[in-house]
Amino acid sequence: MKAYFEIIRPFNTIFVALTILFGAFFHSHNYSIYAIIFAIFSAGFISAAGYVINDFYDLQIDKINRPDRVLPSNRMRPKVAFWYAIILLFLGIIFGFLTQKSGCIFLALLNSFLMFYYAKSLKKKFLFGNLVVAYAAGSAFIFGAISNSNLKNVFVVSIVAFLYTLVREIVKDMEDVEGDIKENSSTLPIILGKKVAAYLTIIPILMIFFFLNYKFIFHGLNIYKIVINPFNYIVTLPLLILFFLYSNNLKAKFLHKISLIMKLDMLLYLVGVWFI
Predict the structure, then answer these.
(1) Contact, 93 vs 103, CB < 8 A?
(2) Where are the domains of the chain?
């Protein structure tokens, strides 16, 4: 039973549930309780299925990059993992329909398809896999927002989540180059080189800075408010520091540490934007 629990990445799955709650209640006074609860289960099951099906198709790569994971360590048979993922996807779609929100139903169906197609094909394609994962991260906020009619308040947060995840996914691809080459993948670091891939992440980092300050830019350029904006120091500045660090050290172990730090920094942003 431990293998069934471990393979769904429980910490990440719980984080998805918290993301739904964030999207539903951020600056909102609506309380569509049943729709929100069903949305949490829907997104949680679909996310869990995504991790399982991803491990199923990544078995050979993980034997090199992540030999301690459930499938390469032979703690679950691949066929069992495949059907486990199908059942989780089915449950996620059912709960999506139970929200009775057309937007949630659409996203549940779309994300289920994308998670499966990503694991099977897109992950190995140049940049497409990174964009799908980044979309999934941003859409979780949208999913929660739709369940509680709160889309307007969450839109910018979802964009920042998309861009932040895109940076982190490129860093993870840089970390996994050795195994990906043996599987004939065509990820960004393999096609352009790890150094070029590292420098390209400055584009989404600068876009994050823009969306954190768009109000001060569009409503008359206010340098003072940009300077005192706390999110530039919670998000943009740490990202720039991390960019400098990983662009100068491309070893897999170091990139793994950077990836973990980025996940914590994103969590800090969400806590900050909720309370500030």
Answers:
(1) no
(2) 2-275
